[in-house]
Amino acid sequence: MIRTILILLVFFIGTQLHAQLTPPAKPDGFIYPPGRHRVDLDTILIEAFYDPVCPYSRDSWPPLKQALKHYKSRVSLLLHLLPLPYHDNAYVTSRALHIVNIHNANATFNLLEGFFKHQAMFYGAQTQLMTRPEVVGRIVKLGATTLGNSYQHVLKSGFNDTKSEHATRVSFKYSASRSVYGTPTFYVNGFKLPDADTPSKFGGWKKIIDSLVQPHKGTS
């Protein structure tokens, strides 16, 4: 039932995009590895759509990260955020990632891994009696622990800045424009991987990528 409702929601948003969405100043997404400033068009491009408090996103990250380390410059990753409406605190944690990325893109994936490691802190049962400022306070504390004390001010001030809110909304709308309604979702060189083919282990990614980086026998 929830899946059906979200599909309808994404379809409705998608039909309104041309009228409502002004193109952002730069493309959506976080480039991996940290420090890389652009996606090389000669590499295999993986686009991952993640929710910071989605356990399936969390579980899919280690094998994907292993593949990126294995193939190095032959593969690029562009990670998009899709804060799912049925995951408590998905939007506010996604916004925290945008805040950090605006301040220092090299730290974005460290915070993402911090959310994955301590994901249970932001599940509904853990925060259902907390106010929104209290949840933000928990995020600020985790950010400072993960990235250093200087990020306490960065995150606090960022939640009062409209830049991060706008960036988070753009991420959601961009995901809808790509017909993405669940996480994790992966695209490889612009083509969506079917759910049945979504890799859950390094071997799955290796099978996909090897077929692209190695020339096919018998072809000219």
Automatic annotation (TrEMBL):
Pfam families: Thioredoxin_4
InterPro entries named in the record: Thioredoxin-like_fold, Thioredoxin-like_sf
UniProt domain Thioredoxin-like fold: residue ranges: 46-210
Keywords per UniProt: Signal
Superkingdom in the source lineage: Eukaryota
Listed CDD domains: DsbA_family
Signal peptide from the UniProt entry: 1-19
SUPFAM superfamilies the record matches: Thioredoxin-like
Keyword hit for tRNA-binding: no
PANTHER family: ACR183CP (PTHR33875:SF2), OS09G0542200 PROTEIN (PTHR33875)
Entry protein name: Thioredoxin-like fold domain-containing protein
Organism, scientific name: Eruca vesicaria subsp. sativa (Garden rocket)
